[in-house]
């Protein structure tokens, strides 16, 4: 027995992907493009290879940001950062990520490789991309190291968690008329393009000034003229509230039709609330050394560690979905952040300085250690899950192969037939 229990592995054969996409943009414009684009890929290329290629493009964007701004120096209202042309590459990279993320399922059906491994791999890459895009978008919106970026991280991860939670309880993935994977990504691509044309300082313009509503005395006196970037964050808050309502509505209908409790699934939202609260409590500690995390060069490592812990949490949730296992309510990776949050708040709890994070150097060391442990824990989870699923189902992760009855690797029949037909 490996990482996944045997009885859970047996449930893998019962799994089949189900999805609902109500996006008009996806139906009439993007999907026809994706259907054509997937035909450009040879049948010898595995769908997971396509998925990983898309994530590599986002990682390249992230490395570009670190190269031009290694300390993430752009504070709110600042003027430093990468050259404006870089934002165009970020937009192109994210659009290609969306495209590759959309065609991997089509490639899986073309090659006969559709199954739970692809679901796990796809969602795992999406979870990592979520945090990376938060950091990149905050740079493009000229938010930089600020609580607005923290709020963006919380809202974006919450949307992803809600979608995964909903899929677990309903058995299918719902994409609304306006969803993160479709319209949300294109919206961020648009932000990158605008920042590339006008620079990130463009987003500091007040929304009333931009819309020229400040010429109306009543509006000028009664509505705050917040920046376009901050207005975008407010818009995101309403989006999260809408997604909470719509996701629960879908879960309520599914559980009611199955004669199950319609309120019990709400307990599944507590893990995210708890884990996100830990990060905020850590950042908002009264200790001087800890309160400067958000305004220092370790802010990005902190967000990355948070994102890796989140990816581990939703990864276990997706695994529970494809194996029909119990919903995971606890994740041991939170313990490290719990220690960090408690230690940072010792001045408030016991009236004494932090024990571990007693100096700026120790705070940085602790954050980087958290990042390293989060990375290795999530990497270990991915490797163990991939090994268990590929061994049990007799498939390969990055090649279009299956095992025959004698245990020998061979190309899937669909792929072999397709290659023979092409020849």
From TrEMBL:
<comment type="similarity">
    <text>Belongs to the CDP-alcohol phosphatidyltransferase class-I family.</text>
</comment>
<protein>
    <recommendedName>
        <fullName>diacylglycerol cholinephosphotransferase</fullName>
        <ecNumber>2.7.8.2</ecNumber>
    </recommendedName>
</protein>
<dbReference type="Pfam" id="PF01066">
    <property type="entry name" value="CDP-OH_P_transf"/>
</dbReference>
<dbReference type="GO" id="GO:0012505">
    <property type="term" value="C:endomembrane system"/>
</dbReference>
<keyword id="KW-0808">Transferase</keyword>
<dbReference type="InterPro" id="IPR043130">
    <property type="entry name" value="CDP-OH_PTrfase_TM_dom"/>
</dbReference>
<dbReference type="GO" id="GO:0016020">
    <property type="term" value="C:membrane"/>
</dbReference>
<keyword id="KW-0472">Membrane</keyword>
<comment type="pathway">
    <text>Phospholipid metabolism; phosphatidylcholine biosynthesis; phosphatidylcholine from phosphocholine: step 2/2.</text>
</comment>
<dbReference type="InterPro" id="IPR014472">
    <property type="entry name" value="CHOPT"/>
</dbReference>
<feature type="transmembrane region" description="Helical">
    <location>
        <begin position="33"/>
        <end position="64"/>
    </location>
</feature>
<feature type="transmembrane region" description="Helical">
    <location>
        <begin position="332"/>
        <end position="351"/>
    </location>
</feature>
<feature type="transmembrane region" description="Helical">
    <location>
        <begin position="291"/>
        <end position="311"/>
    </location>
</feature>
<dbReference type="InterPro" id="IPR048254">
    <property type="entry name" value="CDP_ALCOHOL_P_TRANSF_CS"/>
</dbReference>
<feature type="transmembrane region" description="Helical">
    <location>
        <begin position="266"/>
        <end position="285"/>
    </location>
</feature>
<feature type="transmembrane region" description="Helical">
    <location>
        <begin position="363"/>
        <end position="386"/>
    </location>
</feature>
<dbReference type="GO" id="GO:0004142">
    <property type="term" value="F:diacylglycerol cholinephosphotransferase activity"/>
</dbReference>
<keyword id="KW-0812">Transmembrane</keyword>
<dbReference type="InterPro" id="IPR000462">
    <property type="entry name" value="CDP-OH_P_trans"/>
</dbReference>
<feature type="transmembrane region" description="Helical">
    <location>
        <begin position="232"/>
        <end position="254"/>
    </location>
</feature>
<keyword id="KW-1133">Transmembrane helix</keyword>
<feature type="transmembrane region" description="Helical">
    <location>
        <begin position="173"/>
        <end position="194"/>
    </location>
</feature>
